[in-house]
Amino acid sequence: MAETNACPTCKSNKIWEMTQKRYIFTMSVPPLIVIILIAVLVEPVFIAFMPAIILTNIILAKRKAPILFCKECRHQSTSTIF
Ligand SMILES: [Zn+2]
Questions:
Q1: Which of 46, 48, 65, 70 would bridge 7 by S-S if both were Cys, CB 3.0 to 4.6 A apart?
Q2: Residue 35 near residue 49 (C-beta atoms within 8 A)
Q3: Domain that holds residue 60
């Protein structure tokens, strides 16, 4: 586990890390809710898009996450090192 560093912009150590798992969860849940609603209300075939959305977010998470946010100045970085 890498220790989170202080923010280079404001020197704050109030860093929040979005891990890959958190990224996948955060990015997948809203579209999945929409798909489930459409599937239930309109057309069940939309369920077939669910694996594609999860897979897309796993690929994106591997490229983008972990993302580090500074709570003080909202500086963000896609690297584990600021
Ligand atoms: Zn900062």
A1: 70
A2: yes
A3: 15-77
